Amino acid sequence: MKIKYLVVGLAMLFVKPVVAQEKPDVRTLSLQEAITYALEHNEDMQKASYDQLSAKYMVKEAKSSGLPQVNAFGNFNMYPAIPVQVIPNVFEGKPDEMIPVQFGTKYNANGGIQLSQLLFNQSYFVGLKAAKSSEDLYRLRKTMTEEEVMYNVSSSYFQILQTKEQFEIINANLARLDQLNKILQLQYENDLARKVDVNRIKVNKTNLETQLQTLTSALDQQMNVLKFFMGMPLEEGIALTDAAITLDTGAAAFNSSKDLVQGQTQLELLNKQTELTDLQMQNIKAGYYPTLAATGTYQYNAMRKEFNFLDTDMPWFKTAIVGVQLNIPIFDGMRKHSQIKQTEYTLKSLEADRQKLTKNLEVALENSISQLQNSSSSIAAQEQNVALAQEVYDTTNDLYKEGISPLTDLLEAEVSLREAKTNLNNEMLKYQLAQLGYLKATGDLNTLIK
């Protein structure tokens, strides 16, 4: 029996370290670290990076049309029936008589190299500009994706901090109720308190515990949302540190909203799309210009009555051609004219979008400034309210201990204190989200990682 216990004890010694090793590590992240992680691992960021890299090769593709084009070719034809042509019978001095004649051989083969070099094509030069502009477009799209990721991560981060603060508020209330419940229970057991008072404490405590469970579920969901925005595995454990935004709104006092939003990535992206559409129109107009290219061909031909192309004693005949090719567009059925008109209306539509977006950004900026001012005033008012609620609670608690104030007054004071702290916590979140909205409206979200 002693040996059995010894074996079990030794087994437990080995099992405990293994269990400890399997406990997942918790990574502590600041707001800046969370954003940096998201910019490296978020799937949308990875996709935007791939698109930007792809755009670099679009420029190389556009340039390739202006470089020499070299192609090798080969061709083999067999004629089961050799073509027949009819010609005048000049061989017998009868030009009015037509006779059938076969030209060529049954087996024919040729092979060689073709070379072409673009000398002039207006569309080529426009295409180079469009390719470089497209590269800028994808760069701006990546920047806009970065801003969206930074905003989403920051917003989720602050919401989690607000929920954790609410945890502390409820836990503090539960601690006070636990202490009060113990005192009342002793008083009740000694016939110094009523059963109804004990039940009131239990009801309030149960309500708080229910709120705590709801907050626990909400916190888990918020953590999962944050990890999703960060591109982090859901099973990885993280802990967040306190965070605050240092915001300089001085520029808003000296500049108009229209000036402040000019650096917005969304506006730059729309301007770039307008530029590309204008280049598209130039490319269509370039179709009216002639094109000129140099061409060259060097090839060998062989004609055989029998299939003996591998016979080195049989000749191959070489041919070399050098020339230029000129294409002059004359009439295309008004196709390019219609394309130009379509593009003109597209440009007008983009201009309307630009005006609308500018107004939306101005409204968003004005609203964020207004929310900042309102939240700042509300925070100051709620801080005073919390101090006042705390004073009321402390006074009521002292009066209750002296037997002057009833339990209901103490519970009401406790609820009022909790509501005041909750309201302050909510206003703090609104203020932080308003700061994010201001940074987003002015295009300064990148200051969060600097």
TrEMBL record:
Gene3D superfamilies: Outer membrane efflux proteins (OEP) (1.20.1600.10). Its main location: membrane. One of its GO terms (molecular function) is porin activity. Residues 198-225, 340-367 form a coiled coil. Keywords: Cell outer membrane, Coiled coil, Membrane, Signal, Transmembrane, Transmembrane beta strand, Transport. This is Outer membrane protein TolC. It holds the Pfam family OEP. It comes from the Bacteria. Residues 1-20 form the signal peptide. Belongs to the outer membrane factor (OMF) (TC 1.B.17) family. It comes from Pontibacter virosus. It is found in: Cell outer membrane. GO terms for cellular component: cell outer membrane; efflux pump complex.
